[in-house]
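Researcher: Checking consistency across runs. Here is Ribosome assembly factor mrt4 again:
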Amino acid sequence: MPKSKRNKLISLTKTQKKGRENNVRIFDAIREALDEYSFVWVFSVASMRNAQLKEVRAEFQDSRIFFGKTKVMTKALGTSREDEYRDNLSKLSKHMNGEVGLLLTNRTPEAVTEFFESFSAMDFARAGAVSPLKFTVPAGTVYSRGGEIAEEDDVPLAHSLETTVRGLGMPTRLVNGKVTLNEEYTVCEEGDVLNSQQTRLLKLFGVVTAEFRVKLAAYWSSADNEVKEIDAMEEEDD
């Protein structure tokens, strides 16, 4: 009799080995890049989106970007004077928290900051995000943009979507083949932590609220082996 799949033992050795090998590969790649590039930046990401991160990678094809594996990245830089790879690199470690990455480049700090100050992209919010706005769908016929644009520039919501929006909490009904609300319906308030129903409704009505931005925290320069924090630089400029 064949053994039940439920009773099958799965060895984690290969998985663990691959994980260690991947960590070593990333560690070595960072160390090699530290020898090649003049500047090491720590950056964080708001409203992380892979598509937008790919845009950043495409812009910096002459550089190296590492994202994720924060502990491995931190270890590659060094966390103290004793184990830092280059003098004062360990000073970057205090910024290595949350969704952060490393940018190793030969571009000047002015060129890097100029690019990221102007780079942003909007996308649909995900569950768990905080809404930056209040969105209310007016009473009457429901339009495809939920009142975000003038009715003469919009079209009524497809009648086939009535059961969908009703299932997501909107008290709609069909009147003469049109999706209708007896009274206005607030999808979310500003400051709400959005749930999956709210994010689906926002997306259905084409409301984008998530802004992908890269925040530069600090950089290390091989010219003087010093770390400069961006907030401190901005205060000096003020």
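Researcher: Does this match what you'd expect to see?
Model: One thing to look at in this run: Residues 1-12 have pLDDT under 50 and may be disordered.
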